[in-house]
TrEMBL record:
The keyword Transmembrane applies. The chain crosses the membrane at residues 9-31, 43-63, 88-105, 111-131, 138-156, 168-190. Keywords: Membrane, Transmembrane, Transmembrane helix. This is Uncharacterized protein. It comes from the Bacteria. It comes from Paenibacillus dokdonensis.
Length: 200
């Protein structure tokens, strides 16, 4: 097996990507769990924990594979990596700022229930420049999916009663669906990186 087809920096970047999807997927899942008001708490917590551990182990395994890679970084590659990191930091920072502004506005107008679908749309939109930056077309699908999920949430009833449990339908839906979207993206990054590493 050869580990020289993919640059070490790319593998580290992929591992970081899996970590990001794992962490933020778990955050979205927690929104779904809280919105469900205890309905299915046990299975949702267990499932969320299992998925998180699996993807976390995947990220760690990718970091481990970089130990076997002796890729000499050229000055051009180093500068390119710095440029990518700067652009990523800018995109991530603008995303955080947009989410903060949306949170403040929703609080001011006393309409916080629309914050989570708006947040999903903002997160979805930030995947478009990331797709171009990392040359990962799959990110476009992730972005489109999150935006569609956010729009769908606007049309859902605020509260729904299931088995005599009143749950926040909007938070439950957008929380679990966004978590699934990010987890699938993390899994895709992991498996695609492994396939490239196995190329001879």
């Amino acid at each position: 097996m050869s580990l020289v087809k993919l640059p070490k920096a790319a593998v580290i970047g992929a591992a970081n990507g899996v970590m990001f999807m794992t962490f933020f997927g778990a955050l979205w899942a927690s929104i779904g769990i809280i919105g469900s008001h205890g309905l299915g708490d046990s299975w949702s917590l267990v499932l969320s924990g299992i998925v998180t551990l699996i993807l976390l182990s995947g990220a760690i395994s990718l970091f481990g594979k970089t130990r076997n890679m002796n890729h000499a970084v050229t000055p051009e590659e180093r500068e390119q990596r710095r440029n990518i990191n700067r652009k990523f930091g800018l995109i991530f920072g603008l995303e955080g700022l947009a989410i903060f502004i949306a949170s403040v506005i929703c609080n001011i107008i006393n309409y916080f229930e629309v914050f989570f679908p708006i947040r999903a749309i903002i997160v979805g939109l930030h995947f478009f420049p990331l797709a171009r930056l990392f040359r990962e077309n799959f990110y476009y699908g992730t972005g489109i999916t999150l935006c569609i999920l956010g729009v769908i949430t606007f049309f859902l009833p605020m509260n729904v009663t299931v088995n005599n449990v009143s749950l926040i339908a909007t938070s439950t839906f957008i929380g679990f669906s966004s978590a699934l979207t990010l987890w699938v993206t993390g899994l895709r990054i992991w498996t695609d990186t492994l396939k490239q590493l196995k190329q001879k």
